[in-house]
Amino acid sequence: MKVTKEQIKEWKEKYGELFQITVEGKSCILRKPNRQDLSYASVVKDPIKMSETLLNRLWVAGDEDIKTDDTLFMAVVNKMDEVLKVKEAEIKKL
After folding, report:
1. More exposed terminus of the chain, fewer Cβ within 10 Å: N or C?
2. Burial of 46: CB neighbours in 10 Å, binned 0-12, 13-18, 19+
3. Rounded CA gap, 66 and 68, in Å?
């Protein structure tokens, strides 16, 4: 997958934070999920289908093989946890 700096700049303006995941020479660019994405995917009970739903919703660009080849898909899904990380909050008893 070839991406120009201009494309990345446009995507960042449109989507905000971006992530590139690469496996066996294939890549995809995903955006950071929002509440609507997480809510939409959370109604899917099957974990694989939920991952597939999230991947499709967060997909900005990439090699379509990642969506269809099970080994590539599973490798990308395994790394999607880092895309889904949320900020750490603090709690203090008053």
Report:
1. C
2. exposed
3. 6
CA torsion sign for 65, 57, 20, 1 is: positive
| Strand 59-62 with 18-23, pairing | unpaired
Instruction: Name the fold adopted by 5-82.
Output: rbstp2171 (3.30.2220)
Q: Which run of H or E residues covers position 48?
A: helix 47-58
Burial 1-18 (b: 16+ CB within 10 A, else e): eeeeeeeeeebeeeeeeb
pTM score, whole prediction? 0.84
- For 78, the token pair is 């395994």
